[in-house]
Amino acid sequence: MNEERGRKVRSDKKRTIAAPLEENIYELVAQISYICDRPLKDIGELLCREGIKSTKLIDTIKGKFRRDFFYEENRLYLGDLHRTPYKVKPGIQKRLYMKFYDFEHERFSQLSYALDGSVQAATALVLTTAMMRKDIMYPILARFIQRDLDPKRTDQLRYLCRFLDSQNPEEYITVPAIISYAIGQSLQNNQKIKRTLSGLFKI
Questions:
Q1: Which residues touch 25 (CB under 8 Å, ≥6 apart)?
Q2: Which pLDDT does position 70 carry in this prediction?
Q3: At CA 60, angle to CA 28 and CA 147, rounded to 5?
Q4: Are residues 174 and 181 in contact, defined by beta-carbon separation less than 8 angstroms?
Q5: Are 77 and 83 in contact (CB under 8 A)?
Q6: Which of 150, 148, 146, 152 is nearest to 182 (CA)?
Q7: H or E element that contains 93
Q8: Contact 60/133 with Cβ under 8 angstroms?
Q9: Please, what's the largest Cα pairwise distance for the chain?
Q10: CB atoms near residue 116 (< 10 Å)
Q11: Would the pLDDT of 171 be above 80?
Q12: Angle at alpha carbon of residue 185, lines to 42 and 203, rounded to 5°
């Protein structure tokens, strides 16, 4: 006897978003992918996932909201229907294919509703804004890189922090701050972040 069985739906199933990016933004994501030695989509997903949680980022794009946008439980950004629906700028674009969990996809859908645009355009806006703001991008990448450091390198960074603090008592130096500096140097010199950090350890 044959029984028809329904397919199980994975609770961790992800949904694809193809974010249309201007070529210069796409190339910057590719460069970060290179210096961090991680896949392109991983960097894009990280910056989108963490970027949409950033108050600084939402404050930057709130002027584009046509409809209200709820940020967490205690903050509401008011929309204005007189604003133009958000669309990606015309021109040569590349698409970055990323995957997000359903609850993450829903968050980008809520943002797209506030922008009166597509989910793809909303995701691209988050990624582009994060990439254009070093004060948003660097801390996100720094936390990501710090999690991947082995204990020896983490101890070396902490030692470097203490050394720099002793030389600059007016400024408190943190591990994320040093990694953020290393990210900037790596992008400038187009070299792997691990190599840049190794150079800092020699101070």
A1: 127, 128, 131
A2: 92
A3: 55
A4: no
A5: no
A6: 146
A7: strand 93-101
A8: yes
A9: 80
A10: 19
A11: no
A12: 120
Q: Which residue has the tokens 């199933």?
A: 13
Euclidean distance between the first and final Cα of the chain, in Å?
A: 74
Assigned token pair, 118: 């597509």
β-strand partners of 22? 93
Quote the tokens at residue 192: 């792997």
pLDDT at 3: 46
| Encoded tokens for 26 | 């796409």
Please tell me the total number of residues recorded for the chain in this structure: 203
What is the per-residue pLDDT across 37-65, written as a single tens digit (0 to 9) for each? 999 999 999 999 999 999 999 999 999 99
Q: How far apart are CA 143 and CA 165, in angstroms?
A: 20
- The more confident residue out of 97 and 75 is 97
CA 160 to chain centre: 27
